[in-house]
Amino acid sequence: MSAKRVKSLLILTVFSVAFAAPAVASAGKTVDCGAGQSLAKAVRHAPAGKTIYVKGFCDERIRIRRDRIKIVGVGHSGIDGSNLDQSDFEFNPLVRVRDAAGVVIRNMEMRNSPAEGLLVEGKASVVLKNVSARNNRNVGLLVDHARVVINEGTYEGNQAGIDTTNNASAVLRGDISLQGNGVFGIAASNGAAIEVRGANLQASGNQLAGLLLEGGSLSIFNFTVSQGSRIIADNNGLCGFVIVGGGFLDIVAPPPLQFQGGNLVSTSNNQACGFLVTNGSKIESPFGAATFQISGNPAGMLVSGNSDLIINGGLRIENNMESGLVADGAGVITLAPAVPSPPPALPSVIVNNGGPDVALTFGSRATFEANVSVGQLVCDGTALARGVATCP
């Protein structure tokens, strides 16, 4: 064989090894916590793109800083913080992902943390698939500035279920349980945005509220895959939905799914109200994309502080114990099409509540169009109503 031929083969071999190296780095590793192996050590030494399979429950904190790390539970697996130092209550989670992109955590349970279950922060982007956070002393999942996709999951028995803040974003898919938490099921604050994309949210039985939007937003956008979403907030200690400080709930649908009320928002049997909307906040369903079912609460919907409702069809406020819709110093209450709608929207009804079905006070203004049925309407001397129901 010629020297030239040998040289060519050596060069080819070197290139083959070089290009094969990433595949070796991304190969899976199994950590058996039940056998005393350390997941934290495996993650600390893992290169970008590594997949780590976990058996059993680890009793350690995990810190992820490299891109594309994947942690996959095998069987009933996760991290249990029962034996960790209980003195640090904040920002000391079982799992922290900081500034790492493309991280995936699947089939894992984070439980009994003295602080948060999971914290995703900075520039991080994480996919959580079938992840649960239970009985953590602080928040089950805290998302601070970062981006997450949550596909199936359970966030129960924590101080709070999921908290997104500081311009964070979260996309929710599949069945997600946000029940039995100490304060709220899920929250968006300080510019955070939650998108419900074909999800079934159960935010019930929390001590304060099912959903809290405090200067943040929750939206169902006009993607076909998003339609048919369900948001249920029942039996909470205060209200099903608390929307304050410029919070925003927005539900739309693409043609031809407009005006069909295909997304369900239901809030019943809460201790104070179905909805509390105040301090410059807003609810919009201008194209009839949602059905709102509000019943069995002391008050169905409380709107104040220059806050707005724009709902075209599908609003049902019925059988609340004291009142239906109370607007006190509200902004614009528009139960009518925002634009002409050739297919008629579903009817809206505000009837059969224990006190006034609609009460307008302190300068509130309301428009009720032809597809709206209003029972007893009361107004003080500063309020105005027009359309099919007017102030007496």
Q: What would your notes on this structure say?
A:
- It is a single chain.
- The longest helix has 23 residues.
- The N terminus is likely disordered.
- The strands form two sheets. The protein has a 22-stranded parallel beta sheet that branches. Strands 3-5-8-10-12-14-16-19-22-25-28-31-34 form a 13-stranded parallel beta sheet.
- With 392 residues, it is mainly β.
- The chain has a domain of 229 residues.
- The chain is built from two helices and 35 strands.
- Helix content is 7%, strand content 48%.
Brief sketch in words of this structure:
The protein is mainly beta and 392 residues long.
List keywords for this structure.
mainly beta, 7% helix, 22-stranded parallel sheet
Query: What is the distance, rounded to the nearest whole angstrom, between the alpha carbons of the first and last residues?
Result: 105 Å
Gyration radius from CA atoms, angstroms: 25 Å
Number of strands: 35
DSSP strand content = over 45%
Main beta-sheet annotation: 22 strands, parallel
Quickly give the structural class: mainly beta
Mean pLDDT reading = 91
* Unreliable stretches: 1-26
The proportion of residues forming helix, as a percent range, comes to under 10%
Write down the oligomeric state: single chain
Shape: elongated
How many helices does DSSP assign?
2
